[in-house]
Amino acid sequence: MTKPQLMLLALLLFIPTVAKGQEKPDADTLNQVNKMFALEYDKFDNKTLVDSLTAAGVKPTRPEGVGVLFNEFNLKPSYVINGKDLRMNGSIILIFNSVATDWLFLDSRDFKAVVDGESIDLGRPNHSGLVVTRDTALQGERVMCQEMMLVAIPLASYMKLVKAKKVDFRLGEIEFPMNDEISTILKAFIIYLNNHQAK
Asked: Which residues lie across from 121 on neighbouring strands?
């Protein structure tokens, strides 16, 4: 298990109710959360960026129909706002990274979720891709297709994801549940933003 995975696992013990507004995070939780994200101000563009230092693994439940095997598939949240003071009044960006045996999201990449039974359209991510060489035993292939997608999620929709009991996602033709890793990083991100907002 990698260090980022251990960090996410440790956080599972700390954040079961914090993101629901039921209690304030304690010092141990904040210490763990602060290790997961970085805040940086760009004085030339006058923008503040909050970036994730780790990513949550995505475990597809229905990749078989597309005949493609994943070498890597993960997501992480990010946030950009104009100015030096961090305020939560914009959209949160989800960044997907996929490395697989073929292109998956060139044409089909609408992002949707079923949140506690309610269907939500989360938009169509921007897309970029390239062919990469990886040392992998996956089908004996070393040439892989790497795709990166960014989608801006309105804060209200993001909070629905964070507070939900059950979430299922579909990105293009690929379906996956909100697993513990994804839930933890999304909740931790809100804790980080709340704790670093301008007072």
From this structure: 112
In 20-90, DSSP assigns E strands to 37-42, 47-52, 56-57, 70-82
- The dihedral through the CA atoms of 60, 76, 34, 7 has a sign that is positive
Tokens of 147: 């795709």
pLDDT per position as a tens digit, 7-48: 544 454 445 444 444 467 888 889 999 999 999 999 999 999
In this structure, are residues 36 and 56 in contact, taking their beta carbons and an 8 Å threshold?
A: no
In this prediction, residue 9 carries a pLDDT of 46
CB 144 within 8 A of CB 133: yes
Place of tokens 């890793």: 181
Q: Which of 82, 72, 86, 84 is nearest to 148 (CA)?
A: 72
Model pTM score: 0.83
